[in-house]
Structure formats: structure tokens, C-alpha cells
Amino acid sequence: MNRNQIFCSLVTGISFLIGTITLSAQEISEFPGAQLATQGLGRPYWHVFIAYAIAIGIVFFWVVSIGRRLSQIEKKIGN
Amino acid sequence: MSSKKILLAGTVLAMIGLVWLGAVYWMSFFWVSTEVTQGIAQRIMYVHVPAAWTSFLAFGLAALFSAVYLWLRDERLDRAAVSAAEGGMVFATIMLITGPLWGKIAWGTYWTWEPRLTLTLLLWFIFLGYFLVRSSTENPERGKRHAAVVAIIGALDIPFIHLSVIWFRSLHPEPVVIKAEGPTLPGDMLTTLLMSFGAFTVLFLGLFLLRYSFENLRSELDTRSRHASV
Questions:
Q1: Structure confidence by residue, pLDDT tens digits, B1-32
Q2: Which residues in chain B (82-141) have CB-CB distances under 8 A to chain A?
Q3: For the segment B42-60, what is each residue's pLDDT rounded down to a tens digit?
Q4: Which residue, B32, B100, B117, B145, could crosslink B192 as a Cys pair with Cβ 3.0–4.6 Å?
């Protein structure tokens, strides 16, 4: 496993963790954010979750893109 | 600074940035209080505004590196400029997607041709042009010079974007953090927003260094290929 593969694995793990936090936000009620559940605005929930998911998705895409390009160029230089 | 050190610094900063961003997500969903008027939709601010700041920082750096590149003609500056510009495009895209999602709740529409939105979209297209100009000339050196000019022109748009809400009639609210009398946000919202600024900035700097490392390696490969063909 080279350095870039380790880097990509770590980034994937951290991104998965962030995604889990985002999704679990709908479930937990004992935190101060519990007031959200009583807000009853409905649709805005989806806008917020989509916005947060898109933000981390685009960052993740850029991270993977850089990792892949670095990996490919290191292979070429190594050959 | 050697290539390996830059790569290591970039990796460490990117890791810190991602973990920090995780903490910001947690704060945004579980810790910060809900704004009275807009409700939960206001929480989009904690990704939208820092993404905007980071894109302006990245485009500003791209313009700065480009200006110095035009002066000194040092290839490293061009590599730094293209790395920063790519980061700027990434964060500007986040800003341009999350903004309309917030706008639909706050204004009732995803998009309106008001000054700040229009100027921001213009900035995105100018830097899209930056990449097109780089790759559209047969002479790479000329492409880099022309792209550097485009980056400088693009960055001139940034102050207008910031001041457009003051100068023109705009749906966007006036600044709540960077203002003469100090920030007017409540404490927990300001803390979350500043944490998010920090996370986005560190993440950008880390990924910028990694992207710059890639440009260095590509340049090294090009040099080797040229020597091999001579």
C-alpha cells in the first residue's frame, strides 16, 4: 500500500464519518438541536441536508481527484 | 521547501481540515442555536459563507501568484496559481450550489439576477475561462501568460462582490462579521461560523499544497520526457 492509497483510505474514512454525523442529525433528540424537531418547517430540512451533503461531496471529489492524479504521476515517474 | 515536505505538509493540513470540518458539521447540527426568523435553513450559512470566503481567498491567491509570475516568469508561481484557481473553482461551486438552496427558503426562489449573485456567477465563469485559456493555445507559455491576465481580471471582481450589497439594492443581507462596528451575530453562531472559516481555510491550504505537489511532479515528468527525447 503506497502513501497515496493510505491517504485516500484515511480521507474516505473521515468523509464517511462526517456523512454519518450529517445523517444521524435527524435521529438524535437529547441535544440542544432537539428544538429542530419541533420546528415543523418540513421542506427546509432537506435543503439543509442536501447543502451539507453537496459541500462534503464536492470536497471529497476534489480530494480523490488530487489523490488519483498524484498516484498516477508518481507511478509514471517511478517507471 | 522540498517536494516531499510540501506533500507531507499538504497531507497533514488536509487531514486536520477534514477532522475540523467534521467538528463544524457536529456544531452546526447539534450545538448552535436556531435562528428565529429563518429557522433551520439559516444553518446553510455555516457552509455557504465559509465556502465563499475560501473561494475568494483562493482566487485572490491565484491572481497574486499570476501577477508575480508575469513579472518574474518563475514557473513555480504559475503552478501555484493554477493550484489555487482549481481550489477556488471547487469552493465557488459549493457556494453557488448551497446559496440557491438557502435562497429558495429565504427568498422563495433558487436564483435571481441580483448584483451579488450575478457578479459571483461572473467570477466562476471568468475562472472557468482561466482553465480554457491555459489549454487552448498551442504554445503553453503563451497560454500561461494569457491565463495569468484572466486570473488578475477575475480577482478584480471580488471587491465588487463584497461591496455590491452596500452599493446596490440587493436581496443579500449586509455583512454580519466583517463590519466597522464589529460582528453582530450571537455568540454561538459567530463561534460556529468562525470555526467553519478555519476548517475551510485549513482544508483549502492542505489540498492546495497537494495540488501544487502534483504540478511539481508533472513538471518534473515533462522535463524528463524532454531530456529523453533530445
A1: 677 899 999 999 999 999 999 999 999 999 98
A2: 86-87, 90, 93-94, 97-98, 101-102, 104-105
A3: 899 999 999 999 999 999 9
A4: B32
B125 located within any domain: yes
Q: Where are the domains of chain A?
A: 3-78
Task: Give me the helix-helix angle, B3-26 and A3-24, nearest 10°.
Answer: 10
Q: Any idea of the CA torsion for B16, B18, B21, B25, to the nearest 10 degrees?
A: -140
How far apart are the C-alpha atoms of A69 and B211, rounded to whole Å? 9
Question: What is the Cα–Cα distance from B140 to B138, expressed in whole angstroms?
Answer: 6
What proportions of chain B, in percent to the nearest 5, are helix, strand and coil? 80, 0, 20
Task: Kindly state whether residue B230 falls inside one of the protein's structural domains.
Answer: no
The shortest C-alpha distance from A45 to chain B (Å) reads 7
**φ, ψ (nearest 5 deg) of residue B45:** -55, -35
pTM: 0.83
